[in-house]
Amino acid sequence: GGLNRRGVRLTGGARLRVRDGTSDFAPLLRLDADRSWMGLAASAERRFAGATTWDVRARAEPFSWLRLSASVGAGASSASTAAHPGSTADIAAGFRGRWIGVGVIRAAEATVLAPIALDSSQRAAVLPAATGITFTVGGPLVRGWNVRTDVVNWGSATAFRPQTEAHTRVWFESNFLGFAPRGNFHVLAALTHEYRTTLYAPSADGPIGQSTPGYSALGTVLQVRISTATVYWDFRNMTGHNYETFPGYLMPRNLSVYGIRWEFWN
Known about the structure:
The chain is mainly β. Helix content is 0%, strand content 66%. It is built from no helices and 21 strands.
């Protein structure tokens, strides 16, 4: 349930899970206040098994070309794990829809549980407090072409946290209104690039344990919509690069996902 009054939204909810003769209650509360040049959002939640999480986010756009944002929050993976705070802050400047921004991520010392479902030899690790630098650039290029790049660098690699990650997307999108003025035709073509440096995963053999080499993967997406039918082709890892996102978790080589989506009403 919730209330919405003069740009301020208050939402509350709860989930009840009954299992093996016991019940678990998980409430949540969210607050959002939005104006044309500023915004504030906050949320708090008790997850199942008693884990809690909260966060506060703020945004300000004092000028059409300047955008500021910041957030702080904390969360725990289980009731027996302490909540670890973290915060972000960034500033971005824009011109005619093109934006460039830099930011800072601050992560407190935390215990990270290992994904033992993938490898039972993996062990939990204590990640030291760290500060990461983010960089974002994006916006329209020319005649329907757009670009977006997001980069985060932590200075050095630690367990389960690579030093650098980057995601770049270049895409073309158009309704070709001169050809189809009713908006019944749409084309989207995109090229994506994923980059990540070495990832370390501690195991019973030592704090370094196993590692995955850094990788660089390319993918393409093509979507053509005619009225309410969309034909799509998602071509992932188009160069056939052999890489892992986690030690032992090998990603597929050339992988095509294609088909048609069609919405219709009787």
